[in-house]
Amino acid sequence: MNNPILNIQKLNMPWKTQDPFLFCAHHLDMYPGGNAEQGPNVSLEGRNIGQDFAGKDGWNMYHGTKVPGFPAHPHSGFETVTVVTKGLVDHSDSLGAAGRFGGGDAQWLTSGAGVQHAEMFPLLNADSNTFEIFQLWLNLPAKSKKVEPHYKMLWREDIPTITIKDVEKRETVLNLIAGTYGDHVALSPTPDSWAADADNHVQIWTFKMHANAEFVISSLNDEVNRSLYFYDGESFILASTEVQKNHFIELNPKEEVRIVNGSKDGYFLFLQGRPINEPSVQYGPFVANSKAELQETMSLYQQTQFGGWPWDSSDPVHDKTLGRFSRNPDGDEEFK
What we know:
six-stranded antiparallel beta sheet, 1 helix, mainly beta, Jelly Rolls, globular
């Protein structure tokens, strides 16, 4: 048996990714209580408002000025997959779609030919607000770079949660955001996604291993890239190698992966996919297959703003009384 580890390195923000993924960010913020505007109920003095990423007091405003988050910004040529495990995100976009999601929900947004969206983090609790988010950028092949944008919610009630027990009955709990695990099949992604074709073997899992639990990821005799992120816990053993928390492991897909967790609960993100293997040129939130196409997309955004911005502000938050909901561009609404 060969070593299932191809590469291992310490996690740095943003996290290292492999084709077909372009970007991976993980944020954990211990926000204070919220005020009437759904922002922090403490002074913002000493923060670089508009560019607050320093983690002062254990939390960030990011690009937000009153409410933490990311006000209106464009995307083109790829997809965002946003998984919120703690807290809430208020979504608004140039299609007219909106939503509030979190606590295990995921959002899949195909930017395609171009879309603007805002992702704000409302603080609804008066005492404290813990917030945790993963955002993945999944590339689109050239044939899908200019598709119509598409927005879809994956609600936590519908996302398969699978409990796997080892021989000692110690548990691993897996949230299946994309792909398959055994007989379990994830919710469908957006229709033009690279993940929509099962032959591309796209997998997105988050999983928690109880202390000393064992968990196996089966081998796959196909040309895929596999990434394992160990972002919280103590340590685990893989192929006689001890891995400490905050490490990225590039896995050999043709080898079985047997993880033996350490003495504390361990938290992992697993990404897999067949590489698109096309030229990729990126400038910030714009992704294309050539410099000429990139310039064309950026010029289109300057001219059209990808359809404009239908909201009263660049950083909208929804009514404080609302729970989790989704409103599609056609007006269809769903409340949780």
